[in-house]
Every structure is written in structure tokens, then in C-alpha cells.
Amino acid sequence: MDISQLLVTLGGLGLLAFVAWFFFWAPHRVGAATLTTDGVQQVDIQVKGGYSPDVIELRRGQPVQLRFHRAEDSSCSEELLIPDFQVRRTLPAYQTTTVELRPQHAGQFEFTCGMHMLRGSLLVK
Amino acid sequence: MNSAPIPTSAPVAPPAGPAPATGPVHTATLAIEGMSCASCANFVERALSRTPGVQSAQVNLATEKATVSFSPALTSRPQLKAAVEAAGYHVAEPAATSAAGHGAAATLATDEDELAARKARGYQQLRQRFWLTASLAAVIMALSMLMLWPAFRTRVPEALLNYVLLALTVPVLLVGGREFYVSAWNGLRHRTASMDTLIAVGTGAAFAFSLVATLGPGLLRQHGIAPVVYYDTTATIIALILLGKVLEARAKQQTSAALRALLGLQVKTARVVRPDGREQDVPVAELQVGDLVAVRPGEKVPTDGELLEGHSTLDESMLTGESLPVAKQPGDPVFGATLNKTGAFRFRVTQVGAGTVLAQIVQLVQDAQGSRAPIQRLADKISGVFVPVVILLAIATFVLWFDLAPAATRLPLALTGFVAVLIIACPCALGLATPTAIMVGTGKGAEHGILIRNAEALEKAYQVDTVVLDKTGTLTLGQFALTDLQPLPGYSEATVLPLLAALERHSEHPLAAAVVRYADGQPAPLPSLAATDFAAVEGLGARATVQGQAVLLGNERLLREAGIELPPAARQAAADLLAQAKTVLYAAVAGQPAAVLGLADELRPTSAQAVRELQALGLDVVMLTGDNPQTAAAVAQALGIKRFVAEVLPQDKATQVQQLQAQGRVVAMVGDGINDAPALALADVGLALGSGTDVAVAAAPITLLRADVRGVASALALSRQTMRTIRQNLFFAFVYNVVGIPVAAGLLYPFTGWQLSPMLAAGAMALSSVSVLTNSLRLRGFALKQ
């Protein structure tokens, strides 16, 4: 093994470790809903290559307004799915789309893009 | 289902103004323009709330809409508009004014139109980018090919050509590939990776290496690396991926065609008859419950209601799939979006907006298309980690080739393998496999009056091996028919039937109607006789004078009270009919017993065919009936049913379903949505047989809008075909990736010396998701029996 092979091998192993950590073990951004005066839990979610915040804490039994602002035109994020609430919605680019639901049970409910690449979850307590 | 979505029309804000509530409250939706922040929204909300007569106002900044509840006696829409304009904002026209909860369907259609327009624009731009990229890629490819021609290579210096290729590739990256790089970068900031990440890294690596080889070829040569450029690869990959996107966008449009067609059924205006008799065209969104609406022949019914004046036949096929026009007379329900064929009529509005059958169907189809099939879970889990895993595999490929290949070829082999792995991997095919088939399948069902509530119902229906049919109302019409007419000595059917028909024409009893239908259905027309002195004797029957003779038709007591004694022959005939669970009537003419009549619930004309169709699908058909075993056996035989359970009480139907399930059967229960609700709920799949009106009532997983048992076979066949499509899609998507990635990594190279070109990988990737979509779209051609 010559020096360049050694460098490529070490660099490759380091990159493998970094990629695995970056996608699988790095911490998520958690967001909590703000409560409006009329008891609606509102959350603003930015959609740009992903959802931020991507973990949203909600209280059960209270109405929820998820306001997805899609700040890009990449087709990956054009559809929003929240299967547990039977939601399939098209998010127009550079616009805010409000999704209303009322979680009745505690639990973790995933939301994803149309192809399940981008994901986030609703943490109902 | 963990929760219920809130109806979007639910008022969220509490009453904000102190306005007195007198009379009816109307709700208006105003489209507000010019708001840029939350404080603007608050300002508009306050301005509206302060307007006299406004009970509550809620402004949504996101949708740019204000929802205002107001008393029409105190204020009006123009005044609300004025209040918003006084606050410095603008109201966009037109918008819907309506009773509370109304207008949801109309809004849905508008939103859908707007979305469609946006999508169309996006598609146009995508096409333009594709054509530009493809043209540049073609030039780049041709120039790169020329380099292989020795005569050309000796005349043109390689360095110069590389600069020319670089100049041509940069626009490809900026115009065609920009979307991928931007999206990949945005994704990385969120620690997510998508297909764009793979394309960006793959083409980025090829371009970066080529750039170094162009700008500093000496640098590479120093390290013993040939300064090869991959501009053709970079440009071709981007062009092919864009081609895939163009095809995908076009196919995706078609997956939701059925829903768009349903939305397109909505009528825009209605002709309202004012109290002074004047007819006025108004937008459908402004219709109120109780309005009187006129419909002319050839026009569509604007909303749901009850027919008041006139009669006509209506084509309801767009809602129920029933191809025969339906006759309507005063008192009958009419439904929005159906087509008036022959007569002019007026109807009273009973439902508007979200309450109409059409809006409920649209909502149901939308919900179904948003649901997730259990079969998808594995694919979802895989898509979640797919892209990072592919990146890991690509890095490993690079390292392995670099370490194992001979020094002269190791870098090209490593780089080619790295790029090919990234490019060939297609998470889209996995992601599209299930939802596209569900969208097309549920849409296809809706076109034929088969409403599938969710993807889980589709999947369960696929596994069904036993179909349980309730006899009354499902296999039968739930309507009596005269089945036996036994004349007593001294009479014949020809002499007695005209008399009975004349009498029963005056009666409104369902049994009387059966006698009249029987008489009218005779091959030779009966003499039409007049009846006088008609009297209905409550609970007993009816009497009248026909041709000067007293005619009686009713139960035994009617005759006994008239002092008429039944002969033994009549008693025997009655006993036989009763043994067949039939209803018995006695007729007397001029004080003498004349005939014994047997009536029974009539079988649907299509039931026998439906049973055959179900059996042809390999399903075991079981009939449940409250009849005695002999009658049940006779009915079962007439329909070709081998298994039946007789003397089942209505409350025991659910137990029967459970018993079948205990035998390991997957049971589909078919019944009407209301009486059979417990059995429908217990069955693996419940199919409610409706009649166009009870979309919401039937909470069954599958609702058949047309009251025809043949729909059961169609629904089950459609479910099977949809599931088959999903399985094919998933199989293809899995196999494509499982085979494609190792081949791209160069698995075949040690044996065959062949390595997959990244350009071929891009072609395969572009075709893979299109193949899945095309396979789903094939469902549109699936022939449903009518």
C-alpha cells in the first residue's frame, strides 16, 4: 500500500464515520407550539431541504395549526404527508400552507415529504 | 386513526365584538391583500371586530383570509370590505359569502385550480431547463467524442478543448443542476439527504475532478494521474435526470386526475327563484339552505336538495356510477353535479358546500389518498436511511477501488464507481411505489361509485377469501313483489287480477304497490277498470266497488269481519305460502273468497350475476337471512349460493362474522350501512351498499354508492389489482436498487472487465421512477364491470 492509498483509506474511513454521525446521530431541533389566545397550538415550520424544527412538541386534545412555509422550489419538498392524520397536501413554493389537526392521543406521529426523504415528527404529550 | 382533523371551516376565534346577535348569522370569507406580518393581521382583525354587527372575525396571515361571522341585519359584505379598506388593506374579489360551514368545497376547487396553474408553470420551466441542458449536453458529448478521433486530436490542443468543454458545462450546472445543488445544501443544513444530495455529490465530484484536470493538468501528472475530464458525464447525467423529472411530473399529474375530475363536477352558478317569482343567477357559494332553485333540461343540479315541483330524469352516473338515468318526482332527493336530462323542475336546497354528497365524496377520496398502507412501512423505513447509506456505499466503493485496482487505472475506476453508485440509486421509485398506486386505485373506484376509505381497506380487501351477504336489502331490493296468485274455485287470474289492480291503484300501502306492479307487468295489458267507494281499512286491507261488485283485499281478519268464511283450499294455500316466509293476502269478490296472494321481498335482478362474479374471483359466498331454512335454501339455490345461514336474527349477524373469522377466514361483510353496522365493523372489510345519499352515514371501509351487489366484485377486484400493482412496484424498486448499486460499484468488473458508465446509471435512474409511475397509471385502464 503506497502513501496515497493509505491517505485515501484513512480519509475514506474518517468520512464514513462522519457521514454516519452526521445523518444518524446528530441531535434534532425541537420546537414547541405557541399557544394563541383562543387555545390553538400554532407552529411555524420552515421547509427548505428539511423541516425546521423537525421535532414538534404538542399537547393532546387541543387544536393545532401547523404552518408550513416552503422556502424553496426543489420538488423534493412539494408534498407533505402526515399519514396518521390522513393528510396529503401540496405545499406551494414560497408560500405558507396551514394544516389543521386535533391530536387526541399521545404518541409520536411522523410527517414526511412525498417520498419519505425529509422527515419530522409530532410529539404529542 | 388517532385523531380527527378539525373541519377547516370551524370557527376558531371566540366572539370578539359585543355586537347583538339578532336573527341569522352569516359567515363571509374575505381574501385580504397587503398584509405582511402578524401585526397587520391583528390590525385587520380588530378593524373587522369593531364593525357593528360583526360577531367574530379571524384573520389568517398564512392563507391571507379573514373569516367573519356577522348579522346580515346589521352589516353587509360591502361594509366589511369598507372596514378593511379603511384600515389600509385591500379585499380581493370574488370571495364566497355563505352560511356557516359553507363554501369549503368551492374553496377547495379554487385552491386546486391555483395549485394546478402553479404546477403547470413549474412544469413549463422544468421543460425549458431540460431542453437547454439537453442541447448543451449534446454539444459537449459530440466534442468529447471528437477527441477520440486521432486526426482531430492532433490539430486541436487538448487543453483548449477542455476549456471549451468547461465553458459549455458551467451553464449546464447553473441552469440545469442549480436546483440539485441548492436543495442538497439546504438538506445538509437540516442533516437530511435526498435524491438531490446524491445527484449533487455525484455530478459535483465528476465536475470538480474535471476542473482540476483542466486548470492544473500538470499537478495531476506529477502524481501519476492522467488528467481526464468528465464534462460529458456531468452534463449528460443532469440532462437525463431532468428528463426523468419531466416524465415524472407529467405522470404525477395523471395520478390525481380522478380527484380533479370530481372537483371539476362542481357547478358554478344556480338559478334561484326569489319570493316574487323572479329567477336570478347567483354563484353556488352564495346559495343558502331553503333557497328555491330552478333547473332546466340539460343543466346540472347546482347543489343537494329536495324536488318540489315538476319531474324529470337525472343522470347520476358521475356520483354513483349508475349509467341508467334515475326518475325523480316531487319529494325525491336531487344531488349537486348530477345532470338533468328531460324535464324542468324546482327544488328546495337542503345541503350546501361541505355538506353535499359531492363534497363528501371529494373529502373521502382526498383522505384515502393521504392514508398510508401497512405494506408501505418497510419501504418507508428503508427510504428514511436510504440516501445516507448510499453515500456510505459510494465512499466505500471509492476506497476499495483505489486500494485494489492497479495504480494506472485506480483513480478513474474509483471515481467512476463512486459517481455511478450515487447516480443509480433511486429512492424515488421506493417512495412512489405505494402512494401512486393508491391514488390511481382510489380515484378509479370513485369514478365508478366505489368509495374506498383508506389504504388499509384496500390492503384488507386484497386478503378477503369469504364474502358474507345479508339477504334483505342487499341481495333483495327490500321491496315487496307479488310472487303467488292462487285463484280459488270459480275464479281465474284473468278475472280476478283486473279487479284487484283497480282496487289497489287507490291505495298507498307498499303491499298494494306490489299488486299494481304485478298487474302492470303482465305481458298482455289488463282491462282498465274503475273503482269507486274506495276505503282503506287500517291494519286490515282495503275495499272498493269495481264493476258493481264489492272487492276486498287484505288479511284474514278483513274477510272475517265482512262475514266471509275461508274455504279449506284457501287455508291450505295460505299455510304453504307462510311456510315459505311469504306474506299472505286474501281477496274476496261479491262476498265470496276469490284468491290467495303471496308476496315476498324481491331479489335484485343483478344478484345472481353478482354471486357468480364473486365466485369467479375465487371467493366463498355466504348468505345470512332471517328466513326459515327451506326458504333460505330456495333463495340460495336461485342465486347459486352454496353456503347460507338461516334464521339469523339481525343482532346475530356480527356473531356469524366472528364465527367465520374464528375459522381463519378473512371476511368481507356486505350490508346496508345502518342496520348492519356492527357486523360491518367486525368484519375484516365492511362494504356498505348505499343509494347515493348515505356517504357519510356508512362508516364502512368501502362504500358502494350504487345499490348493486355487482359493485362488491368490482370493489374487491379493484383492490386486488391495486395491491398487485403496489407489489410489482415495490418489487421493482427493491430489485432495481439491490441489483443496480452493486453493478454500479463495479461488482462485474473483476469478472467481465465491464464497469457501468455513470451516464448509463443516470439513464437507468431516470427510467426507474418513471416505470413505477407508469405501472401505477396502468390501473386507470383496469376494466371494472358495470
Automatic annotation (TrEMBL), chain A:
SUPFAM superfamilies in the cross-refs: Cupredoxins
Protein name as annotated: Cupredoxin domain-containing protein
Residue ranges of every copy of the EfeO-type cupredoxin-like domain listed in the record: 16-124
Superkingdom, natural source: Bacteria
Species the sequence originates in: Hymenobacter polaris
From TrEMBL, chain B:
A single BP term in Gene Ontology: copper ion export
Enzyme Commission numbers on file: 7.2.2.8
Topology in membrane: Multi-pass membrane protein
Pfam families for the chain: E1-E2_ATPase, HMA, Hydrolase
UniProt entry tagged with the keyword tRNA-binding: no
Transmembrane regions listed in the UniProt entry: 130-148, 160-177, 198-216, 228-247, 382-402, 414-434, 730-751, 757-777
Every HMA domain range: 26-92
Keyword Glycoprotein: no
Region (Disordered): 1-21
Enzyme class: translocase
Keywords assigned by UniProt, alphabetized: ATP-binding, Cell membrane, Ion transport, Membrane, Metal-binding, Nucleotide-binding, Translocase, Transmembrane, Transmembrane helix, Transport
Cell location: Cell membrane
Matches recorded under SUPFAM superfamilies: Calcium ATPase, transduction domain A, Calcium ATPase, transmembrane domain M, HAD-like, HMA, heavy metal-associated domain
A GO term, aspect molecular function: ATP binding
Primary location class: membrane
GO cellular component, one term: plasma membrane
CDD domains associated with the record: HMA, P-type_ATPase_Cu-like
Family: Belongs to the cation transport ATPase (P-type) (TC 3.A.3) family. Type IB subfamily.
Official protein name in the record: P-type Cu(+) transporter
Organism: Hymenobacter polaris
